[in-house]
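Researcher: Following up on the earlier apo prediction. This time include the ligand. It's pyridoxal-5'-phosphate, with the SMILES given after the sequence.
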Amino acid sequence: MTLTTELSHTGRMAKRAAGFQPSPVRAVFDVSMQPGMISLAGGNPYLPVLPMERIAAMASDVVARRGLEALQYGSGAGTEELQALICQVMELEGINTSPENVQVTAGSQMALELVTKLFCDPGDVVIAEGPTYVGALGVFEGFQAEVAHVAMDNDGVDPDRLQDVISGLKAAGKAIKFFYTVPNFNNPSGISLSLGRRQRVVDICRAEGVLIVEDNPYGLLSFDGTLKPAMHSLDPDNVFYLGSFSKIFAPGLRVGWVVAPREVRGRLQIASEATTICPSVLSQLVVEQYISSFDWRDQIAAYSAVYASRCKATLDALAAYMPEGTQWTSPSGGFFTWVTLPEGIDTDQVLAAAIEAGVVFVPGSAFYADGGGSNQLRIAFSYAPEDQLTEGVKRLAEAIRRV
Ligand SMILES: Cc1ncc(COP(=O)(O)O)c(C=O)c1O
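Model: Understood. Below is the ligand-bound prediction.
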């Protein structure tokens, strides 16, 4: 009886519902919880680095002093003070914008949803790096947008290839809505767009009338403290900038933002209000308190030091244990490295063998919309401690050999 009812409901769903597929990262979540399992799958920040007691005091203080505001509905765009503080955070990467250009969202995931909702009709094309963030693919599929990938090398997306993809799509009569990019310590590849290429990519997109959506949750997590200028700083009117406190503070607060070109800001706010009425005021006030009364730059340095050491342990283990012919990226920040196995080895099959061996990762095909990445995989080094990363990579290498 239940089954029949469910089936008939499924049949009545909107066409876009077919695009709502479970995230491959979430799919391995239950497996990663099994006792003894080492997870190289989830890109979770390592929250034990946070001084929890101080944060507890901040949260308590917010409710005690400003509870009537914190627990009430608030402005659709976000609190004015947080909008201003976000501008200070963005200054670190060369962005000079005013608070009213900032729309606060429930994480940058929501910002990505809003921008896609605003621009994409079914059949429109989004250009994205290959590989790209799996959560972005989920959003694009949900709005029935087509995804065209541009390959990356160790300097990020190749501007000539981007130009070719744009020209090819235009020649085929496609409507390109934007180029979605994670230019710093890319999820999943760990690669950053080189300084030299940034201006060219920005110039090509402007000349071709293609918006850029710059998604930058990891940019401040540079291992040696070197920061690259945001693409938004190079062309503020053509680049939407997506930022987040999830990786530089804590994802549970769900506070992110989007800086939109002036012309679309109003519509973006209306779209946001239709989704959540207003971003959580309580979370915003906690973030305000954190940024204004705590040395958040030191906290980012503390996070980055942990990730740098975990990245090194991972790369050392890859060098020690991986079969010949395997390649991987050497990130200088962020959470991930991207492993390429010899052609013909299917990482979906490797995953089954790896789970048996006690390690879990996300197969490369999750990060492509076109079936690419079958001999690739993502390793997240952000959460597991060094000894587990080493053991995890060893188990993974054994599983690869077995397959
Ligand atoms: C590239 C990228 N964009 C966006 C997000 C979403 O982050 P949040 O919604 O927590 O800000 C993530 C999370 O892992 C990510 O890796």
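Model: Residues 43, 107-109, 133, 135, 182, 187, 215, 217, 244, 246, 251, 256 surround pyridoxal-5'-phosphate (CB under 6 Å).
Researcher: Noted. I'll compare it with the apo version next.
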